[in-house]
């Protein structure tokens, strides 16, 4: 389940770091509480979207409104989060003062097939261990090891969410991530990077991980495609890594499901 939360920005020009997933997670933790957040690992979220300019300290936000894309493996967490969120008049996200205004739900009206092209809204992390060197090791996305890491990570997360039987999990053996070669060639020709080191906080510890941002095609069962669309791909999805979007979003529709000005009852998304 995916939603878009639209906020009014009360202090134009305020700054967030270029990669601000830590700030967004802290923002969510402030709304729902640390314990509830820790008990719900199957969430995923984007960075904050809006009109920005690059400054010395990061991204300066100048639009009247900004958007946070949020997703979950089910509606329970989203209902709880939104009902808590709209109890606040204003919230701080980094230095930004935000007023929650309305919520859109994103509907994928088509059916996932065995091949889907995705874009990264946030970097994909393939390793999450106590081995610092392994977390920062560069593995080229065209290597089989890259897909193997993602496959193991995805199957473990699908087991943990409890929505699939062992028989179903064992049937999801077809899994191959194929990066867009034209994109990789273009990045290489312009001497740019698609993989960087990011800092996150995991289980109270500061951790450095390598994240990859690139378009790719995923060959996997439709159930797997749907899972990663809603729950993210790779490690540390609950920290805002691995959020994806469809390269072809013609079949994605949006519907306003809640407006603060019309609040009459508690939000309950089915």
Characterize the structure shown.
With 270 residues, this protein is α+β, with helices and mostly antiparallel strands. The chain has 2 domains: 2-109 and 251-262, Alpha-Beta Plaits (2-Layer Sandwich), CATH 3.30.70; 115-246, Alpha-Beta Plaits. It is 28% helix and 34% strand. Strand 4 and strand 5 (59-61) form a beta hairpin. It is globular, with a radius of gyration of 18 Å.
Structural key phrases:
270 residues; alpha+beta; Alpha-Beta Plaits; six-stranded antiparallel sheet; four-stranded antiparallel sheet; 8 helices; 28% helix; globular
Write the layout of secondary structure elements.
Elements (H helix, E strand, L loop, with lengths): L1 E8 L5 E2 L4 H12 L1 H5 L4 E7 L2 E3 L4 E3 L3 E8 L2 H11 L5 E3 L2 E13 L6 E6 L3 E2 L6 H5 L7 H18 L4 H6 L3 E5 L1 H9 L5 E8 L2 E8 L3 E5 L1 H10 L12 E3 L5 E8 L11
Antiparallel strand pairs: 1-6, 1-8, 2-5, 3-6, 4-5, 7-8, 8-16, 9-14, 9-15, 10-13, 11-14, 12-13
Number of strands: 16
Quaternary status: single chain
Cα gyration radius (Å): 18 Å
Q: Write down the secondary-structure element order.
A: EEHHEEEEHEEEEHHHEHEEEHEE
Low-confidence stretches: none
CATH topology of the largest domain: Alpha-Beta Plaits
Task: Give the overall pLDDT as a whole number.
Answer: 92
Apparent shape: globular
* Distance from first to last alpha carbon: 10 Å
- How many independent structural domains? 2
Relative strand content: 25-35%
CATH architecture heading of the largest domain: 2-Layer Sandwich
Which structural category fits the helices and strands?
Answer: alpha+beta
Counting DSSP H or I runs of 4 or more residues, the number of helices is: 8
């Amino acid at each position: 389940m995916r939603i878009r939360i639209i906020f009014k920005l009360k202090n134009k020009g305020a700054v967030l770091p270029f990669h601000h997933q830590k700030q967004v997670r802290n923002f969510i933790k402030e709304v729902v509480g640390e314990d509830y957040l820790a008990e719900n690992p199957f969430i995923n979220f984007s960075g904050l979207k809006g009109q920005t300019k690059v400054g010395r300290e990061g991204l300066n936000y100048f639009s009247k409104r900004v958007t946070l894309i949020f997703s979950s493996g089910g509606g329970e967490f989203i209902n709880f989060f939104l009902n808590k969120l709209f109890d606040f008049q204003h919230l701080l996200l980094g230095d930004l003062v935000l007023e929650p205004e309305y919520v859109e739900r994103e509907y994928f009206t088509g059916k996932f097939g065995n091949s889907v092209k995705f874009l990264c809204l946030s970097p994909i992390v393939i390793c999450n261990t106590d081995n610092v060197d392994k977390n920062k090791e560069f593995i080229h996305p065209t290597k089989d090891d890259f897909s193997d890491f993602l496959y193991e990570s995805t199957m473990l997360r699908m087991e943990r969410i409890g929505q699939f039987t062992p028989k179903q999990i064992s049937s999801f053996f077809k899994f191959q991530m194929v990066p867009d070669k034209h994109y990789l060639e273009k990045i290489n020709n312009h001497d740019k990077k698609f993989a960087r080191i990011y800092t996150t906080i995991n289980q109270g510890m500061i951790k450095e991980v390598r994240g990859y941002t690139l378009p790719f095609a995923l060959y996997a069962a439709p159930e797997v495609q749907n899972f990663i669309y809603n729950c993210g791909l790779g490690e540390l999805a609950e920290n805002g890594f691995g959020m994806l979007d469809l390269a072809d979003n013609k079949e994605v529709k949006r519907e306003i499901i809640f407006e603060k000005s019309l609040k009459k009852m508690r939000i309950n998304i089915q």
